[in-house]
Amino acid sequence: MNEVWDLSILYKDFDDPAFTGDMKALDEAIAAVNTLAGEAAGMEHSQLVHRFLQVQERVEELANKLFIFCSLRCSANTADTKANSLGDQLSAKLSGCAAANASLRRTVAELEDLDAIMDADPALEPYRFLLESIRRDSKYLLTDREEELFARMNISGASAWESLRDNLTSSVKVEYDGGITNLSAIRNLAYDPDPAVRKSAYEAELACYDKIKDSVAYALNSIKLQVINECQVRGYASPLNKALYQSRMKPETLDALLGAMDEYLPKFWQYLRAKGKALGHENGLPWYELFAPMGKSDKKYTTQDAKDYLLNIFGGFDSQLHDMVERAFDEAWIDFYPRNGKVGGAFDCGVPSARQSRVLTNFDGAFGDIVTLAHELGHAFHDQQVFSHPLVCQEYTMPVAETASTFNEVLTVSAAIDAAESDDEKLALIESQLSDACQIICDIYSRYLFESAVFAARPEEFLDPDRLCQMMLEAQKKAYGDGLDQTCLHPYMWLCKGHYYSGGLSFYNFPYAFGGLFARGLYAKYQQEGKDFVPLYKKMLHATSVTCVEDTAKIAGIDLTDKAFWRQGLQSLADEIDLFCQLVK
């Protein structure tokens, strides 16, 4: 089994004639976009639609393959200056057709006979959702000149404020244990097995924010006001309305999701109180104990163990998933181990040109690394389901992006809990899963409440750090209730979470809750229906890039606007909370 991935399915290297040839071909494809934009007004409408799709697909085909190669090379070795440089070159190339592309999309959107053109030509059926989306999007477009001006001003607006916040949080010096460390390192100590370390790290973290809170508050205020103003100019009812539109989600679905979460909050407070008592706290769990490890599992696994473990689990679910996972291990889809220069964390990257994926992990032999592999290979399985769409129709929105990955996690961890050889091992598995679930329920809910409050208040007032801290604490008290020690919360979560600082993507919170609970609801459905569920599951994944989330779920017989569906996933977590409480008595 190879320890590093094989990228030769893309290119052998940057001096590969195929790479240099595709770079040249991309220039030609971009020129074709610009040429078509100049000719569009005089073209027959059906011919224009076909040519528009052709030039879009050609640019996407080349840019996708080239960008993926550069990106994967950078991820495996951040010191690969050639990969970084060529990635920048590609971005610059594509900016050369941005205006023409916007003009073409507007022209196509305004075709009065677009429906008739699609109805008359079966070859356009795979592109129907894309073309209808372009038409829907057009009502939020400004003039070409205004779009260009906004894009330029955004560089020194929200984008610059976001960069400032990133710079400040990555460079702030944290005084800890007689030395200096960084914010990322101090926050990682929340997982330390020593309670004294967890508490002192939390105190050091809060203290460091005082150095940068004023500047970051300016960043947040500026970004949120820009979002409010842009929504007004473009015609969105609110920033939340825009976020739902971007997610292809109805407000009724969000209402059902949040309503079900609200019903089950007391159950999660019960889990937090039980964890607090088990750790010696009588007034609820202090914030610094949220990620305290519990139970114990000393098992270590090799990559071969991981392969065998996952194949055994997934083989019982679906042969296609089993065979894809086997290929991933055998055909060098995975870059397993940490090394100098390799990025941290884990991710999956679909490679449409080869109908494969590439997965990066930092495997060190813990069971959590097997769960990570299951998660990323879930993304790869999702990739497989959408590869049959045209390349320009393979993108799906964030709420459904975590469906297959989280489903794989639930399959894997549920099997591990059932097979646990001791209560201590079972406790470690269940607590880890509940800790993650608490993040997507309580923490995400607090973030949603906080961001809603910020958008409501910002038009009338500048929110200084003290006001932001107050708003954050109010949101946490509503979301965590008496599960947490009310005297030991985290007033600076608005500062340390980068999700609030995007000018283009607001409410970067509820999609996490959607993804986690959608996958759990699907798993509950699988438990009820068995093998009959699997074809519907794959058909549903296939549809994620060409339908709204509600229509996607209908394929599996699910009504996302009904709280009853969301309660299924929440009830499965409630059952685990009951088991956790028994184990820690």
Automatic annotation (TrEMBL):
Domain of life, per lineage: Bacteria
Keyword Protease: yes
GO biological process, one term: proteolysis
CDD domains xref list: M3B_PepF
Keywords, in A-Z order: Hydrolase, Metal-binding, Metalloprotease, Protease, Zinc
Cofactor(s) essential for the protein: Zn(2+)
InterPro entries reported for this sequence: M3B_PepF_2, OligopepF_N_dom, OligoPept_F_C, Pept_M3A_M3B_dom, Peptidase_M32_Taq
SUPFAM superfamilies: Metalloproteases ('zincins'), catalytic domain
Organism for this UniProt entry: Vescimonas coprocola
Family of the protein in this entry: Belongs to the peptidase M3 family.
Molecular function per GO: metal ion binding; metallocarboxypeptidase activity; metalloendopeptidase activity
Cofactor: how and how many bound: Binds 1 zinc ion.
Cross-referenced Pfam families: Peptidase_M3, Peptidase_M3_N
Every Oligopeptidase F N-terminal domain range: 112-172
Residues in Peptidase M3A/M3B catalytic domain copies: 189-570
Protein name in the entry: Oligoendopeptidase F
